[in-house]
Amino acid sequence: MARYLLDRMVQSVAVLAIMSVVIFWLMGLMPGDPIDLMISADPRLTPEDAARLRELHGLDLPISERYLNWLTAALSGNLGFSRLFAMPVLKAVLPALGNTVLLLGISFVLAVAIAFLSGIAAAMNQHRKLDYAINLLAFAAISIPSFWLALMMISLFSVTLGWLPASGTESVGGGGFLDKARFLVLPVLTLTIVSFGSHTRFVRASMIETLRQDYIRTARAKGAGEGRVVFRHALRNALIPVVTILALDFGFLFSGALIIETIFAYPGMGKLIFDAIMGNDYNLALVTLLFATALTLFCNLAADLAYAWLDPRISYTGDGA
Question: Which superfamily does 95-310 belong to?
C-alpha cells in the first residue's frame, strides 16, 4: 500500500506540474494583460508608465522565464499577489474555498443520499410504477438546465413567495447560523436537484446488474431476507462503479458550479476562477485551477482506496499495484 501511495503521489505531482505549464501558457496567450486593464481604467497612464509597470511585474519577460520565476516563488511558499483583490492569493482563495466546501459538501451529501435511496428502490421494483416514476424524475433532473432551474427557484421562492433570499451569504450586518442557512437553501436545493438524477441512474443500473448475479440468487435460496440481500450482499459490490462516478463528479462540481454561484451571487471557487480568468489575474487563476486539479486527483485516489475497502479481492500491495 505504501508503494502504491508513493507512486500515486509522484504521478499527481507530475500531473500538477504539466497542468501548471499548460495553464500558464494558455493564460499568456490571452489577449491583453493586467497592465492593459489598468490603462483602460485610468487613461492618464502613459506608454512609459505602462512599460515601467510591465517591467516591475515581470510581464516584459518571455513566457518561459515568467513561468520559472513563478514556479521558484511558489515552491518557496509565495503564491503571488492577486491584482483583482489587492491581497496575497492565499488570502483571496481561503474565504471562497470555505464557501464552496460548505455549499458543495451539503448538496453533494444530499444528492448522494437521495440517489442511493431512489436508485435502490428503482432497482428493486424494476419495470414497475415506482421504477418508472423514479426514472422520470431522474431524467427530468438531468435535462433541466441549471441556470433555468436557479432562475425559477429565485422567481418562486424569493420574488413570488418572498420566503428566501435570492443571493449572497448573509444579511447586511451579519447574522447567526439560521440567517446563513437561509441564504444556502436555494443554491443547495438547485445543486442537489441538478446532481441527483445522474447519480440515481448509475446506482439503479449498478444495482440491477448486481442483483442478477449468481451469489444473490444463492443468498435468496438460503432464506436470507430481502433487506439482507440488498444491503449486505448486493449494495457493497454495486458501489464499486458508482464510487468512480461520484469521485469524478465531486471534482467537477468543485470547479464547475460557476453558473449556480454566479446566479446566486455566491462567492465560491467557481466564481473566483471565472473572475480571475476574465480579469487576467494570472496568479489567482493559476492557483485556483491547480487547486481544482489537485482536488480531482485526490478524489480519484480516494475512489481507488475505496475499491479495496468495498471488495477485499482488490489489493494494492501485490506486484500488480
Answer: MetI-like (1.10.3720.10)
